[in-house]
Amino acid sequence: MPSTEENLRAWGEAASWVEGGDEWSSVWGSAEAQWHGSLLPRVRRYLPTGTLLEIAPGHGRWTQFLLQNCDRLIGIDISTSAIDVCKERFADQSHAEFHANDGRSLDVVTDGSVDLAFSFDSMVHVETDVLGGYLAELAKKLNDTGVAFIHHSNLGAFGRLFEVFARVPPPLRRPLLARGIIDQRHLRATSVSAAWFAATCDEVGLRCVGQELVNWGGRRLIDCISVVTRPGAAIDRPNLVVPNPRFMAEAESIRLASTVHTPKV
Fold first, then answer.
1. Which of the ends of the chain has fewer CB neighbours closer than 10 A, N or C?
2. Is 130 helix (H, G, I), strand (E, B) or coil?
3. Residue closest to 212 by CA, chosen among 41, 46, 36
4. Any idea what the Cα angle at residue 215 is, between residues 4 and 226, rounded to 5°?
5. Which of 120, 92, 147 is nearest to 28 (CA)?
6. How open is the CA angle 240-248-34, to the nearest 5 degrees?
7. pLDDT tens, 32-84?
8. What is d(CA 141, CA 207) in angstroms, rounded to the nearest whole number?
9. Longest C-alpha distance within the chain, in Å?
10. Domain with 68 in it
């Protein structure tokens, strides 16, 4: 169960970012391939947009693409080193600004100003206390038609099962992992589930309108991509929960296509 301090130690140092975070897109072939093949098809309905809030941009893996699709981008991260990298990397982008925070608040963002909040491959590592804090903040920061696109853990739905996995001795784990009988945790938050996320949205005055349950490396759907808005917004509807056990197969397909259609220069 990673704490805010543990996440900061894990992701706050430059040594953690061998290729600026792009290395975590290798399964898709590259960050560019993952953005255009996997993320953009999911978020394109909400782009281009006005004010875009990116929570936990890291070293700007997705920022580089989001900047092309908004009038203003605000990046918020707990890591001051990550914020420094983004400030330098995107210094020529006059519509971008970056701020360090305490890991759960959005004080620098004006209430009711955000058209789209985006976070992918970062908040999967935060537990309910942090994620709940961000959702309460988003309830204040989103405008009347605002949308949040949030990638978070669903490991909480498999809590007891992964407790059993953790007790398997290392020599036995390797063949069981290879055969897909057990899955890696991938540092996912243990207290967060899709059901908890949707219920918390209701508690803070938001509406979760869609959740895609996806696998990450293994067979079990330990991740969730949720779409959130305000009650009464144009996309408001009863929550639609869709299991997608082929998310990693999609990643492999994108990687294979990128090897052909992204020639080296």
1. C
2. helix
3. 41
4. 60
5. 120
6. 90
7. 999 999 999 999 999 999 999 999 999 999 999 999 999 999 999 999 999 99
8. 14
9. 54
10. 4-19+51-245
